[in-house]
Amino acid sequence: MPMILVAQVSDTHFDLGARNAERVRRVMDYFAGLRRRPDAILVTGDITDSGKPEQYAEAKLAFDTDIPVYVLPGNHDDRAGFRTALLGEPSSGAPINQVRRIGDLTVALLDSSVPGEPGGHLSDETYHWLREVLGGAPPGKPILLALHHPPAHLFSPIVDGISLADPQRLADLVAGDDRIAAVLTGHAHSAATSTFGGRPLLVAPSTASVLSGEWELDPPDHVMDYAPDPAVALHVFGDDYRLTTHFRTVPMGGRIGVQPA
Q1: How many of the other CB atoms lie within 10 Å of CB of 240?
Q2: What's the start-to-end Cα distance of the chain, in Å?
Q3: Strands, DSSP E only, in 103-177?
Q4: Residue 1 in this model has a pLDDT that exceeds 70
Q5: Residue 43 and residue 109: Cα distance in Å, rounded?
């Protein structure tokens, strides 16, 4: 299998302000300028800060690129607005589940959002849909599951209280299918790795900010840090279907190719 490169962006929080939009623009420019550009860009939720139509219009403009961009909703999103603005579909409050093929790779995008709630949940409808996707996926070819809410404890006091409910149900499904290479999420505003259902759990950083862990948090201080540059995850599949992930900071000040004195 030729190399497949999937870029993951998360928690962009478009809010009609210049800061978050500029940080996403810099990230998209970084992808476009790579010698080997991503085959797809996956955005794992919280596209907008409050689900307003104008914020989705801002996101749609930012994601207008010749690299395919696949988006899924987070707890800050609105299903109806998300559907109409980003997917071009009729307004609906039903879960937004999608499947995408990238070469031999199948990516199942799961809607873990719960309208009006910060925490996550996968509905019976979503599990039924996912089982159909897995049943129709090519034998022996890799699969990624992507959702917004992490299904595991991350030692993130803010996020752990609003993570995915009933994670064991998903863990059993993941453990039962050897084709699933990893589970990708956002929501934590922090690059993190763990295991889940015997597979890697890969949590993408946010382009907007960094949320503190237990070793940093001191409420009400040291909760969110807006100083770091935006960051992304890069997931690479080689000809042996082995998954390798790199986390990369995208410097707002540009690249420096010579070591400073």
Answers
A1: 6
A2: 43
A3: 105-109, 143-146
A4: no
A5: 10
Residue 133 has which token pair?
């996707």
Tokens 């609906």 sit at which residue?
A: 92
Residue 173 token pair: 């499904």
Residue type, 100: R
Convert the pLDDT of each residue in 212-254 to its tens digit. Answer: 999 998 878 789 999 999 999 999 999 899 999 999 999 999 8
Alpha helices in the chain, H assignment, sequence order: 18-32, 53-62, 79-82, 124-136, 157-160, 167-175
| DSSP 8-state code for residue 149 | S
Over residues 88-126, the pLDDT tens digits come to 999 999 999 999 999 999 999 999 999 999 999 999 999
Measured between alpha carbons, how far is 108 from 184 in angstroms, rounded to an integer?
10
Q: How many Å apart are CA 86 and CA 57, to the nearest integer?
A: 8
Q: Three-class SS of residue 96?
A: coil
For the record, the structure tokens of 184 come out as 């990708």
DSSP 8-class letter at 208: S
* Single pTM value for the model: 0.96
Tokens of 141: 């070819």
Supply 127's token pair.
């599990």
DSSP state for residue 220 in the 8-state scheme: T
